[in-house]
Specification:
By secondary structure, the protein is α+β, with helices and mostly antiparallel strands. The protein has helices at residues 3-13, 30-39, 89-96, 110-114, 138-151, 188-192, and strands at 18-19, 22-23, 43-49, 59-65, 81-84, 99-105, 126-135, 165-177, 184-186. The protein is 27% helix and 28% strand.
Length: 196
């Protein structure tokens, strides 16, 4: 074995490197990676189809705080919850067309900086979810509130006259980019059947 080959083999045999919420899953476990990345992210880029004058029908990405559950290794449900108001420009888009995509990336955690991975490097894993935004029903509102307010305590003091409501991203498609060789497709069934 050449020295380079030896180093590559040795790197593959090392245990996974810890990220913010525990050990990062190996690349062959794409569903776990998707759950892991979402659970370790506090925000994501939500893309809608704009309804605004001059932008109608154009993609429009915006940052939203989110949570799939309280921080910690056992707190994640896999469901991205959001706290929204009709006053927000992207929410106005969603009232016309609830379809959206949501991107979350380990670039927002210390993991990628620690390993000197550029956010565009596949090893700095990111997940793209497609689906729709739906208001949660009363039975799910408590879960959404606990998930969001545990990570974003400032939300509790946001102006009440903005008529905030809890919503979730209803996932229909998942793409994982966490290694070289292109995107991996994960079904929602695979995603929800694993733990992060």
């Amino acid at each position: 074995l050449s020295q380079l080959s030896f180093l590559c083999v040795a790197a593959l045999l090392l245990p996974p490197v810890a990220a913010a919420g525990g050990a990062i899953p190996p690349p062959e476990e794409a569903a776990r990676m998707a759950r892991f990345v979402l659970h370790n992210c506090d925000w994501g880029a939500l893309a809608t189809l704009s309804t605004q004058e001059g932008l109608r029908g154009q993609p429009f990405a915006n940052i939203f705080s989110l949570s799939d559950g309280p921080p910690g290794p056992l707190g994640g449900s896999g469901v991205p919850y959001l706290y929204l108001t009709d006053m927000e420009i992207s929410v106005q888009d969603l009232e016309i067309n609830s379809n959206a995509s949501l991107t979350v990336s380990l670039a927002q955690t210390p993991y990628c900086k620690k390993h000197k991975y550029d956010p565009q490097n596949p090893l700095c894993a990111h997940i793209i979810f497609c689906g729709s935004i739906v208001k949660v029903n009363d039975s799910e509102a408590g879960l959404a509130k606990k998930a969001l307010f545990s990570r974003h305590p400032e939300m509790e003091s946001w102006p009440k006259d903005h008529n905030w409501f809890f919503a979730k991203f209803n996932i229909t498609n998942i793409w994982v980019l966490d290694y070289f060789g292109g995107l991996k497709i994960v079904t929602p069934e695979e995603y929800y059947s694993v733990k992060p």
